[in-house]
Amino acid sequence: MIKLDDRDLKILSILQKEGRITKAALAEKIALSPTPCWERLKRLEAEGIIEAYEAKISLHSFGPIEIILMQAELESHRSEDFETFEKAVQDIPEIVECWAVGGGVDYFLKFMTKDVDTYQRLVDRMLNDRIGLRRYYSYVVTKAVKDTPSPPVPDQLDI
Description:
By secondary structure, this protein is of the alpha+beta class. It has helices at 6-17, 23-29, 34-46, 79-90, 116-128; strands spanning 66-74, 95-100, 107-113, 133-140. 36% of the residues lie in helices and 19% in strands. A 4-stranded antiparallel sheet has the order 2-3-1-4. It starts with 5 loop residues before the first helix and ends in a 19-residue tail after the last strand.
């Protein structure tokens, strides 16, 4: 486990909100000179704590978008069946998130398509491709109540 001090955590928290902040402004916000701040930033990147710098794009600017959540069960529960399904999911760009879960269901998936019909044709193709999908339930998202692109840094969680 990597040891992070208060300044490291503050750097992470600031970058989550202001990913395009200049190094000088970041250094000022954490009360460090630019060189030590830059060294901390490079260490956080090298240790894999900072995975990427990204832009949050408003997909609705390109036209209507449907977000659909799927609860999925596989036909069989052998390790190769999970591998087959997970590999297939990687090759479907409309599936933007997928989580393997425990309990009465195997996966939760998040789809982004232009409409529900496009989603259903995609699911039909998944069924025809025999990737192991046995049963699924679809939930059309009617509005986003909270959409946090990154989890809070550990000091913001009640752990």
